[in-house]
Amino acid sequence: MYSLIQLLLKIGLTEKEAQTYLTSLKVGTNPASIIAKYSGLNRCTTYSVLESLMKKGLMNQIKKDTTKYFTSVGPRQLMLYLEEKERDIAFYKNEVSSKITQFNSLRHPNQVLPTIKSYSGTAGIKKLHNEALDEPFLLINAQKNERQDKFFTQYAPIFLNEKKTIHLAIINNQNIKITNQKGLENIPNCIPLELIGKNKLFILDRQDHYGIEIRQSHIIETHQKQFHYLWNIKKDLLP
Questions:
Q1: Which residues of 28-52 are buried (b: 16+ CB within 10 A; e: fewer)?
Q2: What CATH number should be reported for the domain holding residue 192?
Q3: Do 124 and 233 sit in the same domain of this protein?
């Protein structure tokens, strides 16, 4: 049950909503007092959570005489809930995109942006990958791995769909220029150590789920030059 709660948290439910939803599935149609008893929440909190779940389409209410009974909808409704969230996100994404200029006009001219930013944990690495997608190109230093890294399976396809290019240098004298999805499918399993863009440099430590982002131009340019230097040396060594 713990793993199901974690999954429900990931798709947007609160911990109390997840607990109440799963409890309702187990005990069936019942008054709020019964659901509260088995979920470990007090009655007032349970009523509030049940109302929240009803707004999300995950709980139904039935009235018998003067008593309100609640029943959770079938688990397949969770898919409809996610599909609705996807539509909402797509709508608001377009809204935000159309207002970028207005947002930027509000920024103070003396705003100081951090030149070094750290990311930690699985969620942090995801944010780092998303930041890398904004770059016009990526030079990637990588090393071979037992399985393909999520960057290449989930994020690189999005990057390439925007007609960008990836230069991938893998330890053991392999240089690969990737310009489309087919090229991505043919690369060996590897894990990125550095993502070098035009404006940002990302250094990753996958073992500790940690990474840093650097925006200092002279450091980025140094890494770009080092990459191209090693790229050319490796190219000469290739058969």
A1: eebebebbbbebebeeeebbbbbeb
A2: 3.30.870.10
A3: yes
